[in-house]
Amino acid sequence: MRQLLHAIGTLYTCDGDDRTLKDAYLVIENGRIAEIGVGKPAGDFDVVEDMAGRLVLPGFVNLHHHYFQTLTRAIPAAQRGHLIDWLYKMYPLWAAMSPDDLASATEASVAQLLLTGATTSVDHSYLLPRGGTEHVEAEIAAARAMGARLVFVRGSLTSLEDDLEARLTPMLGERAGGLVDDPGAVLSDMRRTIVRFHEPSAGSMVTVALGPTTTTYDDLNFMRSVADLAAETETRLHIHCHPRPDERALCAKRGTTPFDVLDNAGWLTPRTFFAHSTRMYPDEMKRCADAGVAVAHCPRMIMRLGARVTPIHDMLAAGIRIGVGVDGGASNDSGSMLGEMRLALLLHRLAGGEGSVPWQQWFSPYRLLQMATRDAASIIGRNDIGRIEAGLCADLAAFDLSSVAYAGARTDALSALLLAGDDDRASFVMVGGEILVRDRKLTRADEHRIGGRVDASTQKLIAKASAASRVNYAAFL
């Protein structure tokens, strides 16, 4: 099938030449970009789409998420509290999650990503209660049905943060209600998941990566085994990495550092990308850059949980590759990829306080776009997405800037999108040539039906967790 998108107001290709075209067109054949130009080409087309006045970009690549957390957004009892306090409230909710609950959360998460311009997403699925094999099957099936590309990080919780396992086990039952995984079973299911679902070929819809939620300092054999499996199968490694003061103190007592531990366990490789890295020191940035390690920056999480502002400008200067991630629905209650990009453009300017980041190090809207498209695609090992270029997958998003929300801002279309506006919905989104968003609505699914399913799951989880924990989740604490 030949498709034509024509009269594109502004087209950002993010290709090797960083071309920006006005009054542009795209010809798409069998799900791939066949031709790019200006004006309108001659020839016959099966489908013609008028993109008059639209801003068209490569589909965004969301580098970090936890789909399951969409079940527990904006819970009043968990809106105040740093990481450990927040997790103490959230784990009882998540422990009761069924495979059907996860499928609903996946649909809702992917729906929001598509509606806000993301066509590929990493889901760090580290919480899979009671072994999780059925949860894995349910999530991947739901993601396929929605039509977006998925990097499924088969994660694990072989230990909980700080003293949470000891505090939660009396409340929830053995192994914190089944949240704490058995390392041997996890490794077995990681291999099974790779064999069954990993599609490394060009144009694939699902790839698999590996990674526990955080470094298991008391079981480094497990960390090494995961890294060895990833090396054997040529898959990516992904983990939360912003060592807390107690973790640094533990390593210091053992005569080492968190990054020494990661290095010795085989985790500092070009196939590794960290989430957050809010507490990375300058020498650690250089070490990661030299090793080829990348970072997913999730700015809303930083504000939501009161974390340190990541000095992304210093990481980029050190040579670390950076992408943008939405993060889980319980630490980013919005779930919007464009919303996250808008914050990412600005938040790093505050690192260290007023005036401490020279304005020359503030990155531009186009640098941010690169991070959210071709840079992120490279980080997950994809050279067939992230750019609008002949031969690549036809993954793209279009935004209508005609509303009054962009009045006065249309001197530069990309600046208008990222700095102005009161809406984050794309008008048109395509993955592999298939239109998944048209006129700001999903084409494959009913978002209201999806929302209703998630709401029902949320109320069920709250009822179970309230009975076990005695927490009133509807009360602001």
Q: How is the biggest beta sheet arranged?
A: 9 strands, mixed
The tally of helices reads 16
On the 0 to 100 scale, the average pLDDT is 96
Tally the beta strands: 17
Secondary-structure-based class equals alpha/beta
Compile the SSE list and pairings.
Layout (H helix, E strand, L loop, with lengths): L1 E11 L7 E10 L2 E7 L8 E4 L3 E5 L1 E3 L20 H13 L3 H17 L2 E8 L7 H14 L2 E6 L9 H9 L1 H5 L4 H15 L8 E5 L9 H14 L2 E5 L4 H9 L4 H7 L7 E4 L6 H10 L2 E4 L1 H6 L7 H7 L2 E4 L12 H11 L17 H15 L16 E5 L12 H7 L8 E4 L2 E5 L2 E2 L4 H23 L8
Parallel strand pairs: 1-4, 1-5, 6-7, 7-8, 8-9, 9-10, 10-11, 11-12, 12-13
Antiparallel strand pairs: 1-2, 2-3, 5-14, 14-15, 15-16, 16-17
Summarize the structure.
The protein has 477 residues and is of the alpha/beta class. It contains 16 helices and 17 strands. Strand 7, helix 3 and strand 8 form a beta-alpha-beta unit.
